[in-house]
Design a protein that fits this description.
single chain; 316 residues; alpha+beta; TATA-Binding Protein; Endonuclease III, domain 1; two-stranded antiparallel sheet; DNA-3-methyladenine glycosylase activity
């Protein structure tokens, strides 16, 4: 067991900052408990690790608003514990520069005012974000979350740490060899089609080179990830938002985000990627942060047609 404490230099909301790492409420690799703690299981370059994160109460009259927040106490177990704790500030958003952001629209300014404690995290682990992002290609997030959960429960390993302390069911994602040995029928049972599973297998073979993208500037990192057949700008952006904490890694090619941005910023029911990027131009350099705030605002254009029916390939 190892422990480290980090004190934010301003407003800080730990749970909101870390929630982007989670893949649904039942993600085996990230658990937010009712007592306020967040548990994360990770495969680091030095081995698997689990970490418990707890934010202490803020000083009186401070916290998530304008004053300093309570410190975060991290306790870690496993061969990768020291690696995780060395990078704890980055994981929690210490390297983020939220003061660089200037809201240009009233709905964005309102969310920004209410959630000044949300930071952009940086895990430093590319594959950990790339694989679930590939799973989310061309399907609903609910379907992708089920696939991720099944694969981790079936092929991951229990998170290190003492029984009775580490939450039951917390799992570390498979290592490179295990990913490469998953048979085709197990991908099918997990609801993953041949195209996405093939993309993951190609990425796993190139994992050392892809992990280097975690220390690259945004344009070079996108180029490195998109060199893998099956990985496009959408997947690269979704990965780098988490692994690199890139404030300008805006997601293009998303089914819903352009219309949400168009509706929130301009009251437009229909918008494509080009229109979305035009509306986000005032936020150049901070476009991912802007779209995250827009998602948090929760404004969506009225639905014009029934929700599409989605087919679970695992049942075919």
């Amino acid at each position: 067991m190892a422990e480290r404490t980090w004190r934010p230099d301003g407003p800080y909301d730990m749970r909101r900052s870390l929630e982007v790492m989670g893949r649904g409420a039942r993600d085996p690799a990230l658990m937010a408990l009712r007592d306020g703690t967040v548990w994360r299981a990770s495969r680091t370059p030095e081995g698997p690790a689990s970490v418990r994160l707890r934010q202490t109460p803020a000083p009186a009259g401070a916290g998530r608003g304008d004053g300093p927040a309570g410190e975060v106490v991290a306790t870690a177990w496993g061969p990768g514990a020291e690696w995780l704790l060395r990078r704890l500030p980055d994981l929690l958003g210490a390297g983020d520069r939220p003061d660089d952001f200037v809201p240009r629209h009233a709905p964005v300014a309102d969310v920004w005012r209410r959630h000044r404690g949300v930071r952009l995290i940086r895990t430093g682990l590319v594959m950990e974000s790339l694989i679930p992002s590939v799973l989310e290609q061309k399907i609903t997030v609910e379907e992708a979350f089920r696939s991720w959960r099944r694969l981790l429960l079936r092929f991951g390993e229990p998170a290190p740490g003492p029984a009775g302390v580490v939450p039951e069911g917390l799992r570390v994602m498979p290592d490179r060899r295990t990913w490469s040995l998953i048979p085709s029928w197990e991908w099918h049972r997990a609801g993953v089609d041949a195209k996405r599973s093939a993309t993951i297998l190609r990425a796993v073979r190139l994992a050392p080179r892809l992990e280097e993208a975690g220390a690259m500037p945004l344009d070079l990192a996108i180029r490195r990830l998109c060199a893998v057949p099956g990985v496009g700008p959408w997947t690269a952006a979704e990965t780098l938002q988490r692994s690199n904490g890139e404030p300008d890694a805006v997601t293009v090619g998303d089914l819903h985000l352009p219309s949400q941005v168009g509706w929130t910023l301009a009251g437009e029911r229909e918008a494509d990627d080009a229109r979305m990027l035009a509306l986000l131009e005032p936020y150049a350099g901070q476009r991912y942060r802007a779209t995250r705030l827009i998602r948090m605002a929760g404004r969506r254009p009225p639905r014009r047609e029934p929700r599409r029916r989605h087919w679970d390939i695992a049942r075919l």
